[in-house]
Every structure is written in structure tokens, then in C-alpha cells.
């Protein structure tokens, strides 16, 4: 059984003025970005930079998501649910940065369970300076399979270009990865930037949901099954 990856794409998410203001803000905030490297079982699962507090823009993104949320659910064929929280972080991927295959509501450690298990939708807003000074950094969104009650990713996937001023929404339980970025200048301003985060909510009681384990050696799993 294969479950096709689903996502919603919206281009020109911010106005020209908002986009310019955001790029100026990111440039000023460079000293406040923290390494987001993530060691996992003796290897580095993620290399990037992250900023957790940027209230002016996180509030803007949250308000815009709230305004179109019913349409997003409809396009993903999901039942209505009430948003309990919207998380946001600002990330920068520069030369050699990546994020290996994972899900966004999987459990790395028992202590993280309460923080991630109610993530239902993931969003990623891409932006960068022009002309574009990096290559790579595509989002691979994998189709899923369920075999022997195990939820795993298939060999097939969709590759989404990190195009300037583009917003993407997808199910948090879907496996995905950020392909390595190449940025010859290694200048922070030339990075692949995102505002990304997660929409939390309770699954409708009428929605069938099975707690599935993760296959293919990954311990970074997600509760599987269809949300709708």
C-alpha cells in the first residue's frame, strides 16, 4: 500500500515590501542565529542555523496561515480541526548544510513526545536574496508505505524547488529531507532561508489513526495512518 505525498504550494506569499523587510531583518539578526546541528546515532542528521525569536514576522506568518487555514485543509482533503498552536522558527542553510530523512512528529526521545505528537501540518516558507547565490536545497517529500503495520518511506518522492517567496504545506507525518546546499561564497546573506514551523491540533475523533512503528532503520518515526 502506497500513500502519495501531498502538499499545497503558494507562490508570492509575501508582498514585495514584506519580503524586502524580511531580508533586511535576517541580515541584521545574523549574530543571533544558533547552530542547529543534530547528532544522531554517531552521525550528524542535520546541519543548519536557526533563530527562534522573531516576533514581528512569526506573527505575520501565523495570521496569514489562520486566514487561509480552511482552504489548506480542503486542498489536502483533511477534515476540519481547531488549531491549538503554531510554531515558527527561522532557518538558514549555507554551504554543505542539509537535513536527512525524518518526520516532524516523530519521537527522537521520550522527553520530546509531548512537544511534537500534536503536530499535524508542517509549513515552509522559502526566501533568499536575488540573484540566487546557492544551488541545491530542494525539499524531497517522500511517498509512504505501510507494511506489516510499519510506516516507512517509499523510493518515490516529489522534489520541491526552494523558490523565492514560496510557501509549502504538508502533513507532518510525511517523510522528507532537505538536500545538501552548495553556496560557493559561504556568505550568510547568500543562504537558503526559511520560516518554517508546525500547526498543532487534535485529530478529529472520527478520523481513523493507527500508531505505527517506523521501518528502514529509522527511529525518528511518526504515528502513521491517514489523518483524514
Q: Can you offer a commentary on this structure?
A:
The chain is of the alpha+beta class and 228 residues long. 17% of the residues lie in helices and 39% in strands. The longest helix has 21 residues, at 55-75. Keywords: Dioxygenase, Iron, Metal-binding, Oxidoreductase, Vitamin C. This is 2OG-Fe(II) oxygenase. Residues 76-201 form the Fe2OG dioxygenase domain. Its cofactor is L-ascorbate.
Summarize the structure.
The chain is of the alpha+beta class.
Question: Which key phrases capture this entry?
Answer:
globular, 8-stranded mixed β-sheet, 228 residues, alpha+beta, 8-stranded antiparallel β-sheet, disordered C terminus, 17% helix
Mean pLDDT over the full residue set: 87
Helix coverage percent of residues?
Answer: 10-25%
Shape: globular
Number of helices: 3
Give the total of beta strands. Answer: 18
**Largest sheet data:** 8 strands, mixed
Rg, Cα atoms, Å: 17 Å
N- to C-terminal distance: 16 Å
| Category from helices, strands and their pairing | alpha+beta
| Unreliable stretches covering 5 or more consecutive residues | 205-228
Proportion of beta-strand residues: 35-45%
What is the succession of H and E elements? EEHEEEEHEEEHEEEEEEEEE
